[in-house]
Every structure is written in structure tokens, then in C-alpha cells.
Amino acid sequence: MTEVRADLIGTCWRVLVHAGESVAADDVLVILESMKMEIPVTAPVAGTVRAVPATEGEVVQEGQVLVVIEERA
């Protein structure tokens, strides 16, 4: 399992994936907003989204888990 974490403190502006969805490496999973800038968070691996602990509107901390991906074999 790969945990995709926030690189900075910000607001979870948009969640673009849901559990069970297939994603490719570099797909945008979540968009964070910080200092009026939109920061896309991308998938580091291809696989299936297993969990999305982040919710839209939530303030996230640096290092907080946003999405969990099960890698494709």
C-alpha cells in the first residue's frame, strides 16, 4: 500500500478520486489550496484507491495521509 501524503499545510479544496477507483501514475488525486494557490497532489504509482481519508474543505497538515493506493502487481 502507498500512502499519498500532503506536502504542506493547506485546505483540501477538491477530492477527485474515490475508493475502488483505478488510477495511473501521475493522475491528480486531490487539489490542495494554500495561499490562494492550487496544488495538485498526484499518484506516485498506478493501482486501486483503497481509502480517501481526506475530505473537501478539511484543513490538512504536512504529512497527513490524503489517499491510500494499492499498487498494481
Can you walk through the features of this model?
The strands form 2 sheets. The chain has a 4-stranded antiparallel sheet, with no helix packed on it. It has a 4-stranded antiparallel sheet with strand order 5-4-2-7, with no helix packed on it. It has strands at 2-5, 10-15, 22-23, 28-34, 37-42, 47-51, 59-60, 65-71. The protein has no helices and 8 strands. The protein has one domain (2-54): Beta Barrel (OB fold (Dihydrolipoamide Acetyltransferase, E2P)), CATH 2.40.50. The radius of gyration is 11 Å and the shape is elongated. Strand 4 and strand 5 form a beta hairpin. The model has no long low-confidence stretch (mean pLDDT 95). It has 73 residues and is mainly beta.
Task: Please specify the SSE layout and strand pairing.
Elements (H helix, E strand, L loop, with lengths): L1 E4 L4 E6 L6 E2 L4 E7 L2 E6 L4 E5 L7 E2 L4 E7 L2
Notable characteristics:
4-stranded antiparallel β-sheet; OB fold (Dihydrolipoamide Acetyltransferase, E2P); mainly beta; 73 residues
Quick overview:
The protein is mainly beta and 73 residues long. Helices cover 0% and strands 53% of the residues.
**Name given to the CATH architecture:** Beta Barrel
Gyration radius, rounded = 11 Å
- Per CATH, the superfamily is RNA polymerase II/Efflux pump adaptor protein, barrel-sandwich hybrid domain
Number of helices: 0
Q: CATH top level?
A: Mainly Beta
What count of domains describes the coordinates? 1
Q: What is the CA-CA span between the terminal residues?
A: 11 Å
| Shape designation | elongated
Write the element-wise H/E pattern from the N-terminal end onward. Answer: EEEEEEEE
What would the CATH topology be? OB fold (Dihydrolipoamide Acetyltransferase, E2P)
The biggest beta sheet reads: 4 strands, antiparallel
Structural class: mainly beta
Q: Please bin the fraction of helical residues.
A: under 10%
Number of strands: 8
Strand content: over 45%
Overall mean confidence score, pLDDT = 95
